[in-house]
Amino acid sequence: MIVGLREFSLREFLKKNFDFLTGLLSEIGLVILVMLLSYALSLLAFIVWP
Amino acid sequence: MVLTPLTKQDLKIIGFNLSKICYVTGFVLFLPIIVAVSYSELDTIPYFLIGSALSFILGSILYHFLYTQEEMELKHALVMAALAWLLAPLLASVPLWLSNSMASLLDAIFEGISGFTGTGLTLVPDIDHMSRSVNFLRHFLQFMGDGIGIIVISLSILGKTEMSSVLAFKGEAKEVGIRPSIVRTSRIIIGIGVMFLAVGTVLFTVAGMQEGLSPGQAFFDGLNHAMTGYATGGFTVHSQSLLFYHSLWIEVAAIVTMIIGALNFNLHYAVLSGRRSEILRNMEVRILMFVMLMFGFLVSANLMTVKLYPSVEALFRKGFFQVISAQTTTGFQTVSPVHLMLVWPVFSIVVMSAAMLLGGSANSTCGGIKMLRLGVLLKSLLNEIRRSLLPRTAVVGGSFHHVEETPLTDKIIRGAAVISMGYLLLFSFGTMITVLHGYGLEDSMFETASALGNVGLSSGITSPAMPSLLKVAYMFLMWAGKLEVIAVFVLIGFILLALRRGIK
Predict the structure, then answer these.
(1) How confident is the model at residue B163 (pLDDT cuts 50, 70, 90)?
(2) Distance from the B332 Cα atom to the nearest Cα atom in chain A, whole angstroms
(3) Among residues B154, B153, B122, which one has the least CA distance to residue B137?
(4) What is the residue extent of each domain of chain A?
(5) Phi, psi of B71, deg, nearest 5
(6) CB 3.0 to 4.6 Å from B232: which of B75, B84, B150, B261, for a disulfide?
(7) Which of B418, B376, B365 minimizes the C-alpha distance to B398?
(8) Residue of A26, A42, A48 lying closest to B319 (CB–CB)
(9) Is ipTM > 0.90 here?
């Protein structure tokens, strides 16, 4: 296990799983975008109909 | 068209494939024993053992007596799926009933159907004082039943032939096409589910600890909510749903899991395989986001006209949260049912009902008509308008982008129209039945859309005290909604054919 940890390379891991990790970030990015737009639209409703 | 009479072989094929569903259900009912042991709830273990043993025994009987090597045809797959979504909840109701958590056996079956179909309407009289292991089972049913799909699981573990598996997928209202191999496809769906379960559990647990829950409590609540959030199921560990916490961070964690759960499995696979741009190019995602934001804005504006919430944050956490919960067919509530029906304006209730009926993405954990079908119908409507305006010789065609460029054929349009029509028919039927029981029109529309769309938001109609006939009607709606209507009609046709012509 310790040998395995010593052999672990973050760079190699990121390189191997680049597509997967960036894909996951894209999905979370979409959710953040939806939340930001939702908040902006709440603000708009709040301003237009005070 | 001449319908061929049913044969004993037809029944054998269906029964044999149902045996696999029994085995998977047996496993699902066995797992909460780990939770029972962890929390020293040893008195609940026999309930799970009995439920699990019954499932394995029934599965073994079906396997032994109906063993066949013959391939399923589409009619077998549809009938098998329709029966599977009845059989699995029936078996799941055994531990729920034995544990005395439910007021009656009918309520336990209702809870089983609501769990497996990922609806989230509940008849548990006192969720807050339920044993943790039984409560875990409710959430686990949603994750295994709707989050991943019992048929998907049975295929990946017990799948035998490619053809049978492809057809069984259709029966469960899921597409095939992520990978050429069906078993590999099933495993990818399970992998995606488990990964997002882990992400959701971390988010909910951190949010819970942020609000002062102990790490153990935060993890238990977080795991359960991540399971039902990703499954867009909506069961929660508290009777007040997420309103119990009054926590912005828990609501944010819920929004993340709900939206992720509402996306198409094919899209997840494409994006996680490196096609990142797909997330913004996909027609279904675009329509889902547009409709959700539009409905959210309409509800927020309507809530502001009656001056219900004093701040932007409150408007976001109540108005938008509820619309996202409705559109993704999850059913987490940050507004109590009484407040929703007595204080919210009728317009907002109608918009929420429309959101629940339309639902999220096809081939996801969502219920409802689905955004892909809405997109197809809107595109074909546009084509019809173009056809009317252009010269008679002009060719009007078109395609849409859904993971890949897909031509808009008559077959696709017909499929979308038939299923949407089926949903609207059942929606009318459910609303009429509820109104007949003396409930108001908007409450009836809301609760029917919630049951049919497998959502779980409640206007307060669903309770242990509701009339038994209405409980049965909602069980039918939840089941039919999960199967996307068609399999239900095929099963009815199958039964009528057997009654009229007998079994050869």
Answers:
(1) very low
(2) 16
(3) B122
(4) 2-48
(5) -70, 150
(6) B261
(7) B376
(8) A42
(9) no
